[in-house]
Amino acid sequence: MINNRFFGRRRPEPPRPIPPGQYLEDGFPVLSAGPTPRVDTATWEFTIQSSSANGSEGGSETLGSWDWDALNALPQTDFHTDIHCVTKWSKLDTDWRGVTIDTLFEDAGITDPDDFVMAFCDGGYTTNLPVEDIVDGKGLLAHTYDGEPLAPEHGGPVRLLVPHLYFWKSAKWVRGLKFMDQDAPGFWEGYGYNMYGDPWREQRYTGD
Amino acid sequence: MGPEGAGTGPEATATPGAWQIATVESVHTESPRVKLFQLKLPGRGNFQAGQYYDVRLSAPDGYQAQRSYSISSSPEEPDVIELTIELITDGEVSSYFHEVVEKGEKIELRGPIGGHFTWTPDYTEPVLLVAGGSGIAPLMSILRHRRTVGAASRMLLMFSVRTESDILFRRDLEQMASEDTNFELVITLTRAVPEGWAGETRRIDPQMIDAAFDMVSREAGGEFDGAKEPDRTFGRAYICGGTGFVESIASYLLETGMDYNEIRTERFGP
Hints:
heterodimer, A: 208 residues, mainly beta, Sulfite Oxidase, Chain A, domain 2, six-stranded mixed sheet, 7% helix, B: 270 residues, Elongation Factor Tu (Ef-tu), domain 3, 2 domains, six-stranded antiparallel sheet, five-stranded parallel sheet, 5 helices
């Protein structure tokens, strides 16, 4: 269908294509579902946990854990990337620094991960991801944005960064990954957002 | 700490599904910068108060723009959704709605979307609603829904706008406040204050929020002694408006000891 009298106020063409339904944003909107948690790096810890099925006595076991100093002592990686939010804005050329998920897996000796993870965070937020979408350089545990410590409202001290998927998958205030052998919905996925979230196929909601 | 699981509780909603075409039934100028659009959407699915729709405009040359707008009407109104749209400077979609759209126009949309920022009558604890400007939209849906179903649970709305002419839904809200002893209305003006104004006159701050807590505990029959007992205090808050507005209020509510998961925010604009 066509809105015959709509022409749009064309902003300058983005220097490269942005996903369907998106518009270019120069700012950096904050769109959390709740308050910004106050997280102290002195007590911060990130863990990788086995799936419940594989843990001892039906529970989950910790496969790796890092405190703030340990995270900063690992090899660091820079990401220069575009980000795409499901609320329709895209921001180009963002700069991040942190530790790749590959580095964490290597440091913890994880060689045969399950197929999926649930990222979990301060405040209770969760999001699910296929492991193949966070390894091979696709996922970062980011603590620095644009050369500065990541601000709390943008997920600081540490957020997950998985820029090839809609930005709700880049979980703010992340505290760990728990392996799952089957995919299961996280916070937004349970409310009708897409389980995978590929912006180029406009997978915003369930069934897209 | 570990993962706390998905949002698959009673607030989980059906998928927004395919794009549908709605017809504009009426356009109403509610304030100098805000218009209300009644859209007829026959056979629309049910929605929960607090949800929104995605709207898509398509130019003749194929260019498309999408935005999300909260539903301000109650779920009980059959086949109709009301969108509250503020004219944003340089906004290509809001300017189309304000300058071009009239009765009869067809608008493509899909929804309803959202599930955390919703209220259903089975939640009976006192609720604090906080709105900045057009952030009142989803809260109107909540209040209207509550009124229609006759819920007795207490609600208090703190509504911050710049001037008296920016008080959206004023008559409806004032009528609600006068008819319903379980609903309290606090309006605050942050710019120009008219002669004889009896409401508040500054940005929402911790003092004003504390006073709101006082109101609820006084109604429960007793002095506010600082103890936030369940039936004498807000169990949940819904805050909607610009990001700075929401951030400072949500932070303060967290400091008062409210449960993190019960402070729900919807942030309009960058």
